[in-house]
Amino acid sequence: MLTIENYLDSHYIHRSNWLRAAVLGANDGIISISSLAIGVAAASASREPIVLATVAGLVAGALSMAAGEYVSVSSQTDTEQADIKREIEELREMPDEELKILAQIYEKRGLKKETAMQVALELTEHDVLAAHVRDELGINEISQANPIQAALASGASFIAGGILPLLVVFFAPVSGMEYWLYTFTIISLVILGIISAKTGGSSIGKAVLRITIWGTIAMVLSALVGYLFGVNL
């Protein structure tokens, strides 16, 4: 039975925060580690330097992604909390002006002036802070991200993505490893694009095209750097 409590369960927007972090982490893990391995492989005649660089990049990248995501989301949360605190002060110091602003917001959304004021009055009586935080500041439960959740999703997905090219580095022939890495990475990116598109309800074609184009650019440039500036190790 469809109710207001389960209405959003079949929608995709409530997945946006963790899905963004997970896709970003996996995509970065695949492309970064593959590009690093390709760059070193282009300048190396043995497997050991490639393995060392790939493992080091995997560990450093996962920690960097997790820390960066945590700091980024925490900063966003701090900004939202500061705005909420400011809104509390404004509601205390000038409630009438805040009521008019709320009514104007509803009026701009299409309500008649009298209806907009009535809606603003009723929502103010119900929960004045929630009404202003949601409709004036645009902060709601769906848009709010959890720093720990985002950090874990980003770091874990980076490792999951980075392990794929690491396996190629371990088992593919050193001669021509760049081509093995590129082929395997493109396949991985296509799969990631399909999964992210299905999970987020977006176009599979656009997701796959977007992720493979940028992945190819990154790997080609990394290989070029390896060929131009590398030395046999």
TrEMBL record:
UniProt cross-references to CDD domains, sorted A to Z: Nodulin-21_like_1 (cd02432)
A Pfam cross-reference name: VIT1
Coiled-coil zones: none
Keyword Nucleotide-binding appears in the UniProt entry: no
Membrane-related topology note: Multi-pass membrane protein
Listed transmembrane segments: 21-44, 50-71, 150-173, 179-195, 207-229
Keywords assigned by UniProt, alphabetized: Membrane, Transmembrane, Transmembrane helix
Subcellular location: Endomembrane system
Keyword Cytoplasm carried by entry: no
Highest taxon above the source species: Bacteria
Official protein name in the record: VIT family protein
Source species: Belliella kenyensis
